[in-house]
Amino acid sequence: MDKMENAKEIKDCPDVVTDEKKLRKVSRETTAEECEALGLWDKLLKVLSNDNDGVGLAAIQIGYPLRAFMSLHQIRPGSNQLTEKRFVNPKILSTKGLISPKEGCLSFPGTFIRTSRHAQIEVEDDLNGRETYQGYDAVIIQHEIDHLDGVLMFERESKPIKAGQKIGRNQACPCGSGKKYKRCCLNKKRS
User: Fold this and answer.
1) 129 band by pLDDT with thresholds 50, 70 and 90
2) Would you list the DSSP string of the chain?
3) Residue 173 lies inside a defined structural domain of this protein
4) Structural domain contains residue 131
5) Regarding predicted confidence, which is higher, 136 or 180?
6) For residues 26 and 17, what is the distance between their CA atoms, to the nearest angstrom?
7) Which domain holds residue 83?
8) Residue 158: what pLDDT?
9) What is the pLDDT of residue 66?
10) Beta-carbon count within 10 A of 58 CB
11) How many distinct structural domains can be found in the chain?
């Protein structure tokens, strides 16, 4: 990939922010033009190219509190080739199903937790319009959108429910949505 090769030549590669207080800042809306003018895409790609495990990076993670991120996706399932995808002002429009993936974050190296994420999402943003993502791609995008909202993966940690354990209507939903149980999964049918 030419972009990956070009990214290695960028001289001012920013450090990944690890300060939780800075990462909890809600990012402001931006434009594709502002991202280009700041060289944001090249900086994000440079950091992702330097980290073999990184598959997504939000602008806030390199010190730019802007609603933009980049993610890397397989060209086709099972392929070793990755393609970059840029997002500006993304919003999740709809969701389906739940999965519990093991997640890590470049801002917290070496830390991995089980989270609760939606298995399928429909996303709209200023660069790509409306698109649907599933599985691992959906997890990456949800993780990065959370960064734009000042939410860290720890808040999505999947809490196992013990057999026979009752969940109160006003308790946090165990699916990790951040909503009260009565407003989230209480009345959903189990399959």
Assistant:
1) very high
2) -HHHHHHTT-S-PPPPP--HHHHTSPPBP--HHHHHHTTHHHHHHHHHHH-TT--EEEGGGGT--BSEEEEEEESSTT-S-EEEEEEES-EEEEEEEEE--EEE-TTSTT-EEEB-EEEEEEEEETTTEEEEEEHHHHHHHHHHHHHHTT--GGGGB--PPPTT----TTSBPTTSSSSBGGGTTTTSPP-
3) no
4) yes
5) 136
6) 14
7) 2-158
8) 82
9) 98
10) 29
11) 1
d(C-alpha 161, C-alpha 167), whole Å: 9
Instruction: Look at the block and give the residue holding tokens 């931006």.
Output: 30
pLDDT digit string, tens, across residues 36-70: 999 999 999 999 988 778 899 999 999 999 999 99
CATH number at residue 9: 3.90.45.10
What is the predicted pLDDT for the residue at 75? 83
Phi, psi of 136 (to 5 degrees): -60, -40
More confident residue, 157 or 126: 126
pLDDT in tens, 131-172: 999 999 999 999 999 999 999 999 998 866 556 667 777 777
Residue 189 lies in a domain: no
CB-CB contact of 116 with 154 (8 Å): no
* Catalytic center residues: 144
Q: Compute the distance between CA of residue 100 and CA of residue 156 in angstroms, rounded to an integer.
A: 10
Cβ–Cβ < 8 Å for 39, 53: no
- Whether residue 41 is contained in a domain is answered as yes
Please give the model's pTM, rounded to 2 decimal places: 0.78
